[in-house]
Amino acid sequence: DLAQGVESKAGAESSIADGLRMVQPITSGLLLGTTMAAMLLGHWYLNAPGMELAPLRRLLIAMAAAVALQAALCGVGLALEASHQALSTQDWLFLLLRWSFGLIGVVILIVLTWKTLEIPNTQSATGILYVAVMGVFVGETMSLLLSAESAFPV
After folding, report:
1. How far apart are alpha carbons 109 and 147 in whole angstroms?
2. CA 119/CA 138 separation, integer angstroms
3. Which pLDDT tens digit goes with each residue over 68-85?
């Protein structure tokens, strides 16, 4: 009975890991794509300043949803990974960079961009979105590096 329980738990963890690994590129792509699209649209406002800001605001909402999805997926992965094995100091440092700049920092930049559009100053909003693109790239790169050696995507 005990052996079957251990096997079923290992099988369940394996299927969860497989499911998370299958969904993670999709959520990562959504985050990268919406952030790049928002930055490029923001750049277009510099060429045509009379455009309405509603499309850019919708992209910011999509970015926020993509960050939430990615954070939820990687949060579950991180919790499972931390319960599965002890993480090294190096792992925690990379995780700190991944979460602080790549997820939480991007949320802060979304809020700053939204507030900047209330002024409205599309040039400054575009600059903030450039930083958000860098944050997403750094965060997703850290996630790929960490997840390559982990049982679960983090």
Report:
1. 25
2. 29
3. 999 999 999 999 999 988
Q: What are phi and psi of 26, to 5 degrees?
A: -70, -50
Residues 80, 151: Cα–Cα separation, whole Å? 9
What distance in Å separates the CA atoms of residue 142 and residue 146, rounded to the nearest whole number? 6
Banded model confidence at residue 139, pLDDT cuts 50, 70, 90: very high
* Both structure tokens of 95: 């995780």
Q: CA 119 to CA 131: how far, in whole Å?
A: 19
Q: Compute the half-sphere exposure of residue 19: CA atoms within 13 Å on the CB side of its CA.
A: 9
Distances (CA, A) of 151 to 16, 126, 143: 10, 37, 13
Residues with Cβ within 8 Å of 75's Cβ and at least 6 positions away in sequence, in order, are none
CB of 111 closer than 8 Å to CB of 92: no
Tokens of 64: 């926020």
Which pLDDT score, from 0 to 100, does residue 89 have?
Answer: 93
pTM of the model: 0.89
